Amino acid sequence: MTIKSLTITLILCSTVSACSVMNEQECQTANWSALGYVDGSQGASANQFNERSSACSEYKVHANFNQYQASYQQGLITYCTESHGFFVGSNGNSYLGVCPQSTSALFLRGYHQGQQLFTLKNKVTQAEQALQNEQYDSEYQQQRLNRLKNSIIYDKLTARERQQKLEKIEEINQQPNLIKKQKAQLNRLKKELAELELVQRN
């Protein structure tokens, strides 16, 4: 199994851990050096070898730790960079603390910047959804408002019933103010996102 084929396999998995349990054929044909490099370059936990070894031991296949570990360290060199840290953080992925002390500071700087971008993008998405929901609800409330107004004009109501309907009308009339506030919040978040993206590009 080559490094290229292993990389494709891992990309098809939702997480690195989802591919950690190997079947019999994978164990029989395993290239432990290639596996180590791919796991390291994907930022997999140092315990990944133990999981692979345990799975292959069920098929009487001995895992080669020395080959795996040497290539795992080489893979970490690819993974533990500032730019890759940014990539990991901006995609909302977890960091398992695998980078050695000599490169962890740079990786974490990029990772935290990426996390900021990921968090802000999520806030923008949530604000857009909230505004959209409020706008949909506003259409329904407008119909409700018309029914309330007609009821006050044409229905025989007690003083209490009339007051309750007037209070509901007042509540509905406040909705445009809420939509206005949500639009302002969304614009503010979009501005923050654009500024952050500009800073991180420079």
What this model shows, in words?
- Residues 1-19 form the signal peptide.
- It comes from Photobacterium iliopiscarium.
- Keywords: Signal.
- This is DUF2799 domain-containing protein.
- With 202 residues, the chain is an all-alpha fold.
- The protein has 2 domains: 22-79, no CATH class; 114-200.
- It is 77% helix and 0% strand.
- Helix 1 (3-12) crosses helix 3 (32-41) and helix 6 (82-90) runs parallel beside helix 7 (101-154).
- Mean pLDDT is 86; it is low at 1-19.
The counted number of beta strands is 0
Query: What is the 3D form?
Result: elongated
Return the structural class: mainly alpha
Tell me the β content: under 5%
What's the alpha carbon Rg, rounded to whole Å? 28 Å
Helix percent band: over 70%
Keywords: Signal
Signal peptide: 1-19
InterPro entries: DUF2799
Organism: Photobacterium iliopiscarium
